[in-house]
Design a protein that fits this description.
The structure holds 2 protein chains of 2 kinds. In chain A, 67% of the residues lie in helices and 0% in strands. By secondary structure, chain A is mainly alpha-helical. Chain A folds into 2 domains: 28 residues, no CATH class; 90 residues. Chain B is an all-alpha fold. Chain B is built from 20 helices and no strands. The longest helix of chain B is centred in the middle third of the chain and has 52 residues. The termini of chain B are far apart. Classes of the chains: A mainly alpha, B mainly alpha. Chains A and B meet through α1, α2, α3 and α5 of A and α5, α6, α8, α10 and α11 of B.
């Protein structure tokens, strides 16, 4: 596992520091395309815009807390199952349904619910900004 | 239906092997016909995008089906039904990790991946790094994970024949493993990703329909009351002399993992973080034209996979209630035979044959997805980008991919034959552990941390990979226990069956450390990657010819 110091055998089309020129590479691969390829400057210009910052905030503001929530909730369930066995095996009334079974089925329910919430959020709050920015970037000039 | 109907099958195989084989053959002929049809259309077979991603022309619903077909293996079908039948609650607990994991893919991985890459995991990992070393690392990890997974599937195919066709003969098992390998090669060579996707879609429909029908049947026999189904399973255990009084254990956690709680937590971590780092899963996000379709794919997949695991719980309790562990134990395959035994109990020879055919179809669809992923990674990452500086002729690249499929097919047949009598089930959890420790940290850092550098990426991939593999070699999965791969030797010093609890933090830590110690400046390209990942600009959607 050696650290790659500046590799002398960097391909001819690679730019400074060995980072390949993305646009050149895409053109080579995607030889049927006719659309305008945005340049690095275009991308960094868009990154500064208020629209992009808003898109980034809306995406992260939803995805990160939701990811943290489901991981905590899942491991709560796993830890209860591993270390609170008697609690999880408690029957509800006289039925054969236990607290563990209920929480297990709730894991399915929350997974479906989070999926639905995210898709709704993305369709409503992310897609319109994203497609506008995409159109701006791909517009041939 | 009384237990007396089961007497003839105790100690022997189930159903009629000829009908089982006929149904499987019908699946092979039908899928082969479709694969030939879809691949002989107007598309140019020499295009890399056609071979790797079917030209990215699938829609979200089709791709969601294919993801479910790619992900739901025979092990998860037969294994989880068996685990619920034998251990009740623990089987459910185990299956949940496989589902919840998809939220990582949905929330954090699928869409940005679609927006920043084209064919392989390495496309995304190397985006803002030095191309060659990172692509090489990502390709090595892809090839290893895919091969572990493939080997487990192939070895499992041998056991499945013994179970479903009553063939315990060594030679015949080898023939079946070879046949699975040859069919896998044929699907991939003839149909590329397009053909593979169709096989996966058909399999997913058959598998999910099969378990839904059986579950409704089981529930109908218990008045559509889950409580009386579970009580039926408990009563059945209590009604058997040897196990009288042990019925309650079906409700108690940790009957299956009792001695190794920390090991189970480690496995849970591998499952929940591993799914979104499995290269064959990641590759499926490239077969749709846009991030929006990738999102639809994952939401369809979550619906299908979640439904599937809920149904396997019902089938497991159904097998415990209607067939009983004491009868399942008499059959070759033991717990793995629970689903088949239940099918026979419910619908006799014909339903058993259908379920057996579906189980075989399941293996074929999964191995085909693995083979195409591994071949794409070798041809696109190693051959084109590392050896040919990204300037290889696409035709030659596809040719290399095709030859790679042959090599992978041959290796997996040899490996499958050699490993079929070994307990290699741990290879699947190892694949998840490597995916969670070597792949996912780099994917998340690449997408969400601008400070991530080439050195961090390499340390993370190689460090996560090495620690996961070394720890499993010295774990009870390989030696020192009755259920080990080599039960006669004991060189285990690592106590957990699954290394994720250690190797995942190692992967994340090394990724951070390698990055903060590096003076590389990739700020500009990181900004570009972030804009691309969120907007999908310039992502090259479906390619029309």
């Amino acid at each position: 596992m050696s650290t790659p110091s500046r590799d002398p055998e960097i391909p001819a089309q690679a730019g400074e520091d060995g980072h390949q020129n993305r646009t050149a590479r895409l053109d080579a691969e995607q030889h049927t395309t006719s659309q305008h390829h945005p340049t690095a400057e275009d991308f960094s210009a868009v990154a500064q815009t208020e629209e992009f910052q808003q898109l980034r905030r809306r995406f992260r503001g939803f995805a990160f807390p939701m990811a943290a929530f489901f991981i905590v909730w899942y491991f709560t369930y796993v830890l209860l199952s591993t270390y609170a066995e008697d609690f999880m095996a408690t029957r509800l009334g006289s039925s054969a349904i236990t607290i563990g079974l209920v929480l297990g089925v709730l894991q399915f329910a929350t997974t479906f619910l989070i999926t639905w919430l995210y898709v709704r959020h993305a369709n409503k709050s992310l897609d319109p900004i994203a497609s506008q920015l995409k159109a701006d970037l791909e517009e041939a000039r | 239906m009384t237990t007396s109907t089961l007497t003839p099958l105790a100690g022997s195989q189930l159903g009629n092997p000829v009908i089982n084989i006929a149904i499987f053959a019908a699946f092979v002929v039908a899928t082969m016909f479709i694969v030939v049809r879809v691949s002989s259309g107007r598309t140019k077979k020499k295009e890399t995008s056609d071979f790797y991603t079917g030209g990215a022309r699938f829609d979200g619903r089709q791709n969601g089906l294919a993801i479910a077909g790619d992900y739901l293996s025979a092990a998860s079908f037969l294994g989880i039904v068996g685990a619920v039948a034998y251990y009740g609650y623990d089987g459910l607990l185990y299956s949940i990790g496989f589902l919840v994991a998809w939220l990582v893919a949905l929330l954090l991985v699928a869409e940005p991946l679609r927006n920043t890459g084209r064919y392989t995991m390495a496309d995304v990992l190397s985006f803002r790094m030095k191309q060659k070393p990172v692509r090489m690392a990502a390709a090595i990890s892809t090839l290893l994970v895919s091969f572990f997974y493939l080997l487990a599937q192939m070895a499992g195919a041998g056991g499945l024949v013994a179970l479903l066709l009553g063939v315990s003969d060594d030679f015949m098992q080898n023939v079946v493993i070879t046949l699975v390998g040859v069919l896998m090669i044929a699907y991939v060579l003839i149909g590329g990703m397009k053909g593979t996707t169709w096989v996966q879609m058909i399999k997913a429909i058959l598998l999910v329909t099969g378990v839904i029908v059986m579950s409704i049947w089981v529930m109908a026999l218990h008045g559509f009351n889950l409580s009386s189904l579970v009580q039926g399973a408990i009563d059945h255990v209590n009604s058997v002399q040897e196990t009288a009084g042990q019925g309650e254990s079906l409700l108690e956690p940790m009957g299956k993992y009792g001695s190794n709680k920390v090991g189970f937590i480690s496995l849970s971590l591998a499952l929940v973080l591993g799914a979104a780092g499995l290269p064959h899963v990641l590759m499926r996000f490239y077969t749709v034209p846009t991030a929006r379709e990738a999102r639809r794919s994952v939401s369809w997949a979550i619906g299908l996979i979640g439904t599937f695991y809920l149904m396997t719980m019902i089938l497991g309790f159904g097998a415990a209630a209607l067939v009983g562990k004491e009868n399942i134990d008499q059959m070759p395959g033991k717990a793995n035979a629970a689903a088949a035994a239940l099918a026979f109990e419910l619908g006799g020879t014909l339903l058993l044959a259908i379920i057996a055919g579906v189980a075989f179809a399941t293996i074929l669809a999964v191995v085909a997805g693995l083979a195409i992923t591994a071949s794409a990674s070798f041809a696109h990452d190693i051959y084109n980008n590392v050896m040919k500086d990204g300037k290889a002729d696409p035709r030659v690249e596809v040719k290399v991919a095709r030859y790679t499929v042959l090599v992978i097919g041959a290796l997996s047949i040899i490996g499958g034959v050699a490993a079929k009598s070994q307990n290699v089930a741990f290879l699947v959890s190892l694949a998840f552990a490597v995916a969670a420790s070597a792949n996912l940290p780099s994917i998340l850092y690449s997408l969400y941390w601008k400070g991530f550098k080439t050195q961090g990426s390499l340390w993370s991939i190689y460090g996560g990979l090495t620690s996961a593999i070394v720890l499993i070699i010295f774990s009870p999965a390989v030696s020192g226990a009755e259920s080990s791969m080599i039960p006669t030797a004991d060189f285990a010093w690592f106590p957990l069956d699954n290394p994720a609890l250690v190797s995942v933090p190692v992967g994340f830590f090394l990724g951070w450390l390698g990055s903060v110690l590096s003076d590389e400046d990739n700020t500009a390209v990181s900004t570009e990657m972030e804009v691309r990942s969120l907007t999908g600009a310039d992502a090259g959607g479906a390619i029309s010819h």
